[in-house]
Amino acid sequence: EKINGVDFALVVKDGANRDELTNIGDSLKANRSDYIFILVGGNNGAYPVIVFTKGNGTNIAKAGDIVKSLASTLGGGGGGRPEMASGSLKSIDGIEGLANAIKAKI
After folding, report:
1. Which of 16, 38, 77, 95 is the most exposed place for a label (fewest CB within 10 A)?
2. In 3D, which of 81, 83, 82, 76 has the Cα closest to residue 40?
């Protein structure tokens, strides 16, 4: 979804591990310069999360801050750089609402 010139996606892929999420992120990032991508996998209380941002997406919300916010609200932990961060969540209940809050900033 493109919002004000920034590509945004929340991808929740049941059962996906960190490597699979990275591959999905690499595909999403191709030929894009301004984006925020939140990728979540796993199941049963262990949900890996990877966030990629670039350009105006990073100016709006740094990847590490997004992961920390998700982990703070949904349980878990993580962090990283402004353009790429990862972690693990204990729950994904309510992740759409958190993603909508980020979209509202774009």
Report:
1. 77
2. 76
